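Design job #97: recover the sequence.
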């Protein structure tokens, strides 16, 4: 599974066998933690 994550949006780019309920749960978790994920990404790649 590959997700694309933007500052305000999460979407599915590819799925390799996860069920719809699994995808929905993952998307929900990512959306709930979006600020943490993007903050960590920015901190890591800003040097």
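Job complete. Output follows.
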């Amino acid at each position: 599974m590959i997700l694309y994550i933007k500052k305000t949006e999460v979407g599915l780019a590819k799925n390799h066998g996860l069920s719809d309920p699994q995808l929905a749960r993952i998307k929900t978790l990512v959306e709930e933690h979006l600020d943490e994920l993007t903050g960590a990404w920015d901190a890591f790649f800003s040097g």
